[in-house]
Amino acid sequence: MLTLIGKRLAQLVPTLFFVSVLIFSLQHLLPGDPALVMAGEERDPVVIEQIRKQYGLDQPIPVQYAMWIGNVFTGDLGESMRLKVPVSDLIVQKLPVTLQLAIMAMLIALVLGVTTGVLSAVKKDSAWDYVINVVGLAGISTPNFWLGIMLILFFAVHLGWLPASGYVSPFEDWRQSLATTIMPAFVLGTAIAGVIMRHTRSAMLQALASDYVRTARAKGLSERVVVWKHAMRNALTPVITLGALEFGTLLSGAVLTEQIFSIPGFGKLIVDAVFNRDYAVVQGVVLVTATTYIVLNLLADLGYILANPRLRA
Amino acid sequence: MKRILIAGALAAATLGLAAGGASAQTTLRIGLAEDPDVLDPSLGRTYVGRIVFASLCDKLFDVDADLNIVPQLALSHEVSEDGKALTITLRDGVLFHDGTPMDAAAVKYSLDRHRTMDGSFRRGELSIVESVDVVDPLTVRLNLKSPFAPLLATLTDRSGMIVSPTAAEAAGDQFGNNPVCAGPFQFVERVQQDRIVAEKFADYWNADEVFIDRIEYRPIPDSTVRLANLQSGQLDLIERALATDIPTIRADEDLELEVVTELGYQGMTINVANGEGAKGPLAESALVRQALDLAIDREALNQVVFNGEFFPGNQWVNPQNQWYQDAYPAPARDVEKAKALIAEAGVATPIVVDYMVPNNPEVRQVAEVIQAMAAEAGFDMQIRVVEFATGLQEAEAGRFGAFMLAWSGRPDPDGNIYSFAHSTGPLNYGKYASETVDAALTEARTATTFDARKAAYETVADLWLTEGSVLYLYHRAMLIAHTDDLEGYVQLPDGLVRVVGVKLN
Questions:
Q1: Which uninterrupted H or E stretch holds A305?
Q2: How many CA atoms, within 13 angstroms, populate the side-chain half-sphere of residue B122?
Q3: CB B351 within 8 A of CB B394
């Protein structure tokens, strides 16, 4: 087990190096000169030159990369050109916000997805099964921005129950925090719940048809124990991986949802940074996201092993 | 299941109660269309940033509802006879938010900072200033390289904002994260992309006219959501409502709408001489450009895309502006004449144009309507949608035939035309060049009387509107919506949100 973790951690370094080179080259392939975007309407050639120099944009790309990666090793992710604040400050400020949203969304997705998935597998081909499948498919296919705006119009404008947008930290006021994040978390959660439901359903069907379930039933165990204890344990394995990867997606910023609900998280940060060609911010955010993905993948693998003892060998 | 539903509804209702009534009565919550950039008057470059500056940083001068220049931190001004010195007398007893005095030394410091700081966007605007002298504690003199009529108007914007030298020295280029000026409100905190908070400054020189204790600026990019926030009472005022939302706002009896014609314009820049894009009849023949102009029905465009709420126009200022040239009214659509002009130019149709359009739903729609109209006269406008940053680079490099360009506008007409039409102008993307136009533009800058300046602009109009490289289309309505609890709110033509004199009931 420890060797496995060690091995996986060792793989992390070259992967991150490769990712960092990729991010760096990709964004320089994007059309659009950051100095021009920075200059905006005030198009003074002298100022544009000053900006290029100040941020090292006049250097060859390999030099820029070396400068950046060198700083990264000292914990310095650079400074946002647009906002004049350290990128690490921005990340530290935004990450908890998105983390909160992602955890809430994931809880909603897991509760909804796993229960409905199990239910529809157990009641295969019944009315329950059909309804759950249709609703699940609707959940996957409904665009987040549409559902988001509908929820805002209904719960904020029409009923006046929830704030239309914005964000309050749970440390400031936990009720307000819940009020501001429940709608976006629901929008994000339902989209993933559909996927989890479908995976749970097929994994569950497979498990229910297997020999050990038949044996368990033959032994006279109650259906509840058979389904939730025996079948579930095996069915959960693929769901764990899926959940971890979806969680990674949520963390990398649920771009549209954050935009609609004006949630100041990772998604909004990266969208604004890309549009403004704020390179340092894009680089920092992508690096953190990539690291998160890799770590989550590792955790998913470990989860696999914990859930399924046969893999421990 | 039923129990869960009831519990859910109860929980939501509790949260709803928590959501309402949380803010103090005199907190004005303003919804912004974007997150502002850095809040340093020397380094700021966004329109939305100017809205925030309007409460934080007073300027030497301001504009009134008719765009007249009125004193703010200044009391009066005097221009020397040769037009090369501007002497400004300052208001006495003004303090910065850090308690230091706003005096002539501070004004010199700020103007020099604007002019020389690395990366300052004010450098160009103040390049006409040779030096700044402190005459006495309440008098400064700006020595100019040559007479420059638009200078006062420049001082009504960020170039005229005076910052605390003590705070600016201490903070360096981080000043924008904690700006200290002499405005009615002082900066409290900022959470990027979430909020900017400012509190009433008790020692403000005009504090008796400030009735609001606190302002929260909240960037909400989606206009539907911004309006939803206003309707549900989470905001008191929003800027840049959509023209298509006007009926909704008017139908809501708790809301009021302020409409003002923007200072800038929306137009189509045509590449006449900039690199590889400057090929083909549209670039080469003024007659073909006139034909395109005649093929466009500006009124229909306004009706179709903006429900008739915007303002058709054909010049760099809107028709209500005192600098509008009445001798050159917007042409009525005339497809036959357009075809005749194309024939006269001896050009075969269809005339293919690489038509670069920024990725914005409204502008895209405008482009499609123009495409349809121009097709009837023999143009094949091939729309190429580009994202903002890409568009800038393409325009700079001359990789376009026609480019939809929005200009936010300046109070002085010079700010709307010089950089675009002068052969050396940094925004002259089409690379139009005419010695006559150059000379007239310079004359309009240096002349001292209104009549002399307007006459110079007539010369510009005569050439630029017939053979130039911008087809002006319309002026946007700046739409600001607020609750009717807001009393005494006055909307000025620059679209900024001013909070002095405003009460929140």
A1: helix A279-307
A2: 25
A3: no
Q: How many CA atoms lie within 13 A of A144 on its CB side?
A: 22
Mutate to test the interface with B, among A84, A274, A282 (most CBs of B within 10 A): A84
Provide the residue type at B131 as one letter. Answer: S
Q: Which chain B residues are closer than 8 Å to A269 by Cβ?
A: 192-193
Tell me the two tokens of residue A212. Answer: 């050990």
CA A114 – CA B297 distance, rounded (Å): 59
Handedness of CA A122, A125, A126, A132 (dihedral sign): positive
Q: What is the pLDDT of residue A308?
A: 67
* Each residue's pLDDT tens digit, A222-244: 888 888 777 877 777 778 778 88
Asked if the C-beta of A261 comes within 8 angstroms of chain B's C-beta atoms, the answer is yes
What phi and psi values does residue B86 have, to the nearest 5 degrees? -115, 115
Distances (CA, A) of B308 to B152, B159, B311, B334: 35, 35, 8, 21
Give the pairing type, strands B27-32 and B237-238. Answer: parallel
| A272–B193 CB contact, under 8 Å | yes
Contacts of A255 (CB under 8 A, 6+ apart): A267, A268, A270, A271
Mean pLDDT of chain A: 84
Among chain A residues, the shortest Cα distance to B15 is held by A179
- Tell me the C-alpha distance between A118 and B267, whole Å: 59
Helix (H, G, I), strand (E, B) or coil at B346: coil
Bridge partners (DSSP) listed for residue B140: B88, B134
- Closest approach of B34 to chain A, Cα-based (Å): 10
Token code pair at residue A293? 């993905």
How far apart (Å, rounded) are the C-alpha atoms in residues A42 and B242?
A: 26
Are A149 and B118 a contacting pair at CB < 8 A?
no
Write the burial class of residue A239 (CB in 10 Å: 0-12 exposed, 13-18 middle, 19+ buried).
buried
DSSP B327: T
Instruction: Say if residues A297 and A245 touch (Cβ distance below 8 Å).
Output: yes
Nearest one of B108, B133, B134, B113 to B123, comparing CA atoms: B113
Pair of tokens at residue B314: 């054909």
pTM: 0.86
Residue B5 has a pLDDT of 44
Q: What is the pLDDT of residues A236-266, one digit of tens each?
A: 777 877 888 788 778 766 778 888 888 888 8
Return the ∠ at Cα A203 (arms to A199 and A204), rounded to 5°. Answer: 115
Q: A220: Cβ–Cβ under 8 A, 6 or more apart, which residues? A: none
Counting DSSP H helices and E strands in chain B, the numbers are 16, 21
- Cα distance between residue B262 and residue B265, in whole Å: 7
d(CA B59, CA B138): 15
The three-class DSSP label of residue B457 is: helix
Pairing of strands B265-270, B402-407: antiparallel
Does A134 contact chain B (CB < 8 Å)?
Answer: no
Rounded CA-CA distance A136/B283 in Å is 56
Phi, then psi, of B332 in degrees rounded to 5? -80, 155
How many angstroms separate the CA atoms of B220 and B242, rounded? 13
- Helix, coil or strand: residue B440: helix
- Give whole-number Cα distances, B8 to A111, A174, B12, in Å: 15, 17, 6
- Cβ burial of B296 (10 Å; 0-12, 13-18, 19+) is buried
Whether this model's ipTM surpasses 0.90 comes out as no
C-alpha to C-alpha distance for A285 and A292, rounded to whole angstroms: 10
Measured between alpha carbons, how far is B62 from B92 in angstroms, rounded to an integer? 17
Tokens (6 digits) for A257: 């949802």
Tokens of B357: 């359009």
